Amino acid sequence: MTSKRDHASILRVHLPFPSIFSHGLRDVMAWASLWLTMSCSSPAKPPSASPIELRRFSGPPDTALDVACSPTGLELCFDAIDNNCNGAIDEGCGVQTGIIQFSIAWSDPTADIDLIVMDPSGETARVHKTTRLGLVKDRDCPGMKNECQGQNTENVVLTHHEVPRGVFRVMIRCNALGQTSPPYRVQVGARVGQRSYATVLELEAMGAEKMMTFEL
To answer: Phi and psi of 108, rounded to 5°?
Structure first.
């Protein structure tokens, strides 16, 4: 038989447990409230990417970039110029356009002028072969079988959505003379972000080269 003293001892042993349980429950409720507050709050926004813009340009002496377009103009094909000021060069003319684009055009259909573009990693864009950073050459004129049909332009474009920052190196080279005598006047167009630029270079002889750099 259990005595009153034993009952008191049992009570003294078991009475603290409800107090401990209540304290633990309050902790659980506090953590649940904190979790709900954090889960309902707006997630942190990732840092915005830097704008796609031309930070620095360099080229041959007396070479300057111009904005050679008219907002009300019509886009002309195969002239390497953004004629209508919409940011794309020769769009609708069967050439690729992109947020980064380099194009050249020249008048003598028999002359071979080459556009060589190197991306910031040092890789050169090849015809229909994309670099790891997304640069590709989609037009090479005059072509082995006269594929360009006298409309001589060359075009290099970025196909990836992520724009690599750094220096793009653009070389214009005279690979072969045409029916007309040099110098050859080469129209150069460049698109960086939403802005397009234009300049003109002259190549005086076969093998002549002109280098430009575009830093983003």
So the answer is: -75, 110
DSSP 8-class letter at 27: H
Query: Measured between alpha carbons, how far is 93 from 100 in angstroms, rounded to an integer?
Result: 17
15 and 67 co-located in one domain? no
Dist CA 204 CA 179 (whole Å): 14
Q: What is the pLDDT along the chain (216 residues), one digit of tens a residue?
A: 444 444 444 444 444 444 444 455 565 565 556 555 545 544 444 444 678 899 999 999 988 888 766 676 788 899 999 988 888 899 888 888 999 999 999 999 889 999 999 999 999 999 989 999 999 998 888 877 777 887 889 999 999 989 999 999 999 999 999 999 899 999 999 999 989 999 999 999 999 999 999 999
Task: Collect all residues with Cβ–Cβ distance below 8 Å to 92 and sequence separation of at least 6.
Answer: 75, 77
Same domain? 84 vs 185: yes
What is the residue range of 31's domain?
Answer: 4-40
